[in-house]
TrEMBL record:
SUPFAM superfamilies: Dimeric alpha+beta barrel (SSF54909). This is L-rhamnose mutarotase. One of its GO terms (biological process) is rhamnose catabolic process. One of its GO terms (molecular function) is racemase and epimerase activity, acting on carbohydrates and derivatives. InterPro entries: Dimeric_a/b-barrel (IPR011008), Rham/fucose_mutarotase (IPR008000).
Amino acid sequence: MRRICFTLQVKPDRLDEYRRRHTAVWPDMLDALRAAGWHDYSLFLRADGLLVGYLLAEDFAAARAAMDTTEVNSRWQAEMADFFVDGRPDHHMHVLDEVFHLGEGPA
């Protein structure tokens, strides 16, 4: 499993609503993410709108492509696009390179 970290920028005036929307993510969206290979997915939001996402995936490109084929993802992305500076978030993720990881192996 590969660890993936990405950033996006939420519009500062939309932070409260963005948080509220994520307290009730649609069940069919959650099912689609799992089926597409997104595991241990978390989002972290800073007060200035910097959004950091973290997930595990065997093949992130394939996981993104699988989501792109789902109707629920199209609806979710259309609803969420106005929250982001660059528009539709699934098209503007800035994936970061991992430079260090403290594993669980022997000391």
